[in-house]
Amino acid sequence: MEKLLFHLSIVAINCYAIWYDQQYIEVPLARADAFVHLPMKGRSIFFTMWCFLAQTLYFAVSAINDIFGTDEESPKKIPLIRSIRDVIFTTLALPASMYVTTVFWSIYAIDRELILPSEMDKAFPSWLNHLLHTTVLLFTLIEMHISPHTYPSRKMGVFIVTSFSYIYFVWMMYVYYETSTWVYPLFDVLNWPTRIFFCLSTVISSAVMYYLGEKLNAAVWSDETPKEKVF
Fold first, then answer.
1. Which end of the chain is more exposed for a tag (fewer CB within 10 A), N or C?
2. Is the dihedral of CA 58, 63, 68, 70 positive or negative?
3. How far apart are CA 149 and CA 85, in angstroms?
4. pLDDT band at 97 (very low <50, low <70, confident <90, very high)
5. Any transmembrane segments, and where (predicted)?
């Protein structure tokens, strides 16, 4: 019951954050006008939002698994809903949250104007910023410690996590093609070779994050998780 309440609480918090953003946040940046016609008032252009939605989906599926599936450490047979939950966690929710929190706060520490211009502070509350960029990893790490997860095959896991990053960058390039505006101010100060390098390094980083997540999970649960691959 405690896990179900935890999962439902995260879903409620995340849904409230999305609702609040869509209802009350108007981005006070000139470049934002180029994106408002896109889904979610243009928020769909940010990888942070992709990560946030993936995490919300994960906790919603986890709540369903709490009710209809199983969270045993070594079940005789892994239910389909748990297999789906584990794939979402291992290939999307965990590596994406690790990437978002690490990269966002690293760039913020170097020069926040490249990632979150100071003029955004007037319209973008700090609690929402931390939900999107800080607790997204905190909640996921807590989940790692309270729920066992079975990883898919390494080949399948790396394929899913890198495809997720690749699809995002294809979307970002499409947005630039349609609006002649880069999603992130960072890309304004880069040239094409460094932009391509940044995108490729991010795709590679996603695979590294997946590998780190796999090792962390193994360290937390040792030999207690089932050996059967979910897919």
1. N
2. positive
3. 8
4. very high
5. 45-67, 87-107, 127-146, 158-177, 192-212
HSE, CB side, 13 Å, CA atoms: give it for residue 63: 14
C-alpha to C-alpha distance for 228 and 231, rounded to whole angstroms: 9
What sections of the chain are H helices per DSSP? 2-24, 47-68, 80-88, 94-111, 126-133, 135-146, 154-179, 192-221
pLDDT exceeds cutoff 60 at 129: yes
226, pLDDT greater than 70:
no
The pLDDT of residue 33? 85
What is the C-alpha separation between 195 and 172, in angstroms, rounded? 12
Confidence of residue 171 (pLDDT cuts 50, 70, 90): very high
Are the beta carbons of 128 and 17 closer than 8 angstroms? Answer: yes
Domain ranges of the chain: 2-221
DSSP three-state, residue 71: coil
Q: What is the DSSP letter of 43?
A: G
Contact residues for 157 (Cβ-Cβ < 8 A; gap 6+):
90, 91, 151, 210, 214
How large is the average pLDDT for residues 6-28? 95
Q: Tell me if the pTM is above 0.85.
A: yes
